[in-house]
Amino acid sequence: MSTATTAVTYCRICEPLCGLIATVDDDRLVSLRPDPEHPLSKGNACPKGIAFTEVQNDPDRVLHPLRRTADGEFEQVSWDEALTDIAVRLRKVWDEDGGSAVGHYLGNPSAFSYSAALWSGLFLKRLGSTHQYTTGSQDINSRFVASKLLYGAATQMPFPDLPRTDFVLMLGANPHVSHGSAIRAPRIKHELSAITARGGRVVVVDPRRTETAKAHEHVRVRPDSDAWLLLSLLHVVFAEDLVDEAAVAAQSTGVDLLRAAAAGYPPEETVVRTGVDAATVRQLARDFATAPSATAYGRTGACLGRHGTLVSFLIDVLSLVTGNLDRPGGTVFSQGVIPLEELAERAGAMTYGATHSRVGGFPDVMGIFPSGIMAEEITRTGPGQLRALIITAGNPVLTVPDGERLVEALGRLDLLISFDLYVNETNKHADYVLPAVTFLEREDFPFALTAASPRPFFQATEAVLKPYGEARPEWEVFEELMHRMGMAMTSGGPLSFVNRPLLALEKRGLRLTPRRLMVTLLRTGPFGDRFGLRRGGLNGKTATEHPHGVVLGEHASTGLLPEVVLLPGKKVRLDPPEIAEELARLGERHRLDGADGSDPEFPILLIGLREIRSQNSWMHNSPTLMKGPRRQSARVHPNDAAAAGVVDGGTVRIVSRHGSIEVAVTVTDDVGPGTVAVPHGWGHRGGWHLANASEGTNVNRLMSSDPADFETLAGMSLLNGVAVRLEPGS
Questions:
Q1: How does pLDDT run across 523-544, given as a tens digit for each residue?
Q2: Are 53 and 29 in contact (CB under 8 A)?
Q3: Which residue range forms the structural domain that includes residue 306?
Q4: Is residue 165, in this structure, part of any structural domain at all?
Q5: What positions does the domain 4Fe-4S Mo/W bis-MGD-type occupy (predicted)?
């Protein structure tokens, strides 16, 4: 007789957090399906969410603590044995060199586990670590810096008001595949179609005719030229008196810097750089500025070029100067249901440039430094040398530039430990790999970037499954390590805004847990019950009472600018010195690079692309996602393929100044002449059998780990617009 039961939960692979129904039998996951009663996703989920059943039940999954032996293999050990040894060795490093010798790398999945993110942060702050790294320098840190400069709040993520807008200008984003980033819109494909159905427009600016571009209007642009294009759009807006002067005066200061800068970039002069003809640029600027409402939006494609911070900055400026910031149908401000990030901002914890990295002198971004400098931070001797590294749900060997250099450096660490579901290309070099829980094996509250929601929404979930094997939540392990090191988790300093509620709970005799912290913040937040003072507000029982989640408003709030801007006068700053300096660097590059900035020895520009059945580097071990003719393939324009002597279905050798790879070829005019697009996250050599058997290579072998090649303001790795040449494969 079947004992199967179902449980309501939500996916935590990417930002839409689509609703799921899990079927469980005898403490094993049987299946996942979309939740038809979820108010936002409404029975929709992507292939990755459904296929997570195979990750949950994967025979290659790490289910017990593993210790690396002298011959490089792993042996199973007890939790007690692992934690005792780790605590002793970590304490030794800390006693000798303090927190400046201890580091942490936080991978993408941790962004969807509030408890792992919070407690790892507390742990590192308690140790006084000066080495904190994330996937952000390969993804979104430039957006955070732009927000810090514009609004005084790094975590403020303005987003497009999709349900009410008449015009979306989208740069470097492909939400038909990514499902939306820095915005929570589970049915974003439907949202975009609804705009055009009501007579509006969606214009996709991208070097590739992406899946989203095919469904809407496409403006092809040369890779890494977004800054020139945006300045030309602003040139037209300023020159043709399309500025909403009242909005500019009421909302901002310093517009003269941008007015003067844009004057030097008429579309007729930037066409050689951008590939977009002047007439198209001028009409696009006019249409955007005169639309009843409009919003500009950009994501990873806009963040990963040589001027990523400037591009993110200018995207918001375009909305502001046309009167489309903080208004219905425009670009609106995010408002957290759980105001953790807001509290952190007001407490001064979300810093920019408060400290600088030992290697490269990069400013911190919320305490984080560029991941691309980790290898040199490990190998460079002297005060502050990185000696012990903790990795949580990360695989930097495949995600940072020049992973082989990082592999060599990892071998020099005194201690390397990893929390993960798999032995991957990075942690196969670790001293210990510790079994982490999946998102189905832990309770959860919505965390990073969920405030950027066109329809305010809240859903929390209990664990669907008991942890398989000996897997443990990361936060419990961090707490146990701190105990075994003879230290207390709580402390003052930059995280005092977290410690105060924790200490208050402790005085009431309650164990200090991530859940109690989040419930406290939920109840005191903008939609909370204020501990009974606001009837109908959210509290710790909301998840049980509304398992499918609860919609908190028909639309995102507007008129929030005076609340969310933390700069003097509560106005957006358009002339920070960092942007003035970056504009000067752009102008100098424009002057020295030649007409189009191309390199005759490496005339092709490489960009990345996302795939609907991949999630960075960690879902290539699922049979469902890998079925069929699945392989990594470079997209090459027919003209470039013919010139290089490569054919569709064959292989191509891609060469940069920093390395070379060979990869399969798809010849297509989806990319323009002079552009090659290669998916990231491939090249598996870990403990996952199916992934290892797949064709593919690590595209980041083409990228530079020299700090001189990183974006200046946020330390972003240059992953888009990389100069390469094409040769026949072997």
A1: 989 999 998 888 889 998 887 8
A2: yes
A3: 141-336+561-580
A4: yes
A5: 4-60
